[in-house]
Amino acid sequence: MTGTVGTAESTATTRSERGSVTEPAERGGLRIDRGVLRRIAEHAADSVPNCVRLRRRVAGLGTGEHGATARLAGPERQLRIRLELALRYPAPIAETVSAVRERVRTELERMADCRVATVDVTVTALVPHPTAPRVE
């Protein structure tokens, strides 16, 4: 494709240097790393209301936060996803998990054109809303 950096063509096909039209499928392949698919699933789960991030502790020391953890199996057209996540207490668990499943499926299909066969969810913690410190 010829042209300058920063310009984009508005059609789905491009012209090669000789002027012939190149179809999108003939331009090359696209492979999305499993780590990227995993992060998309984790981010999608974390973005659902009532899913919470937890402080990570190692040997009693705080080392940051973590949200949902995803594991992926199967081909990109039949992904099987296992999620572990914490929910806000007293959120309705069944409704929240249903929303997580739908968001993960939607985002993986929208961003990476992957089909999700199953999303298995394990709720690892229920976290109450933080309370304001009491003044005495």
Overview of the structural elements:
- With 136 residues, the chain is α+β, with helices and mostly antiparallel strands.
- The chain has one domain: Alpha-Beta Plaits.
- The chain is 24% helix and 34% strand.
- It has two helices and eight strands, in the order E-E-H-E-E-E-E-E-H-E.
- Strands 3, 6, 7 and 8 form a four-stranded mixed beta sheet that branches. Strands 1-2 form a two-stranded antiparallel ribbon.
- Helix 2 links the parallel strand 7 and strand 8.
- Helix 1 packs antiparallel against helix 2.
- The longest helix is centred in the last third of the chain and has 20 residues.
- It is elongated.
- The N terminus is likely disordered.
Quick take:
With 136 residues, the protein is an alpha+beta fold. The protein has two helices and eight strands.
Helix and strand topology:
Elements: E1 14-15, E2 21-22, H1 34-46, E3 51-52, E4 54-58, E5 61-66, E6 69-73, E7 79-89, H2 93-112, E8 116-128
Parallel strand pairs: 7-8
Antiparallel strand pairs: 1-2, 3-7, 4-5, 6-7
Helix pairs in contact: 1-2
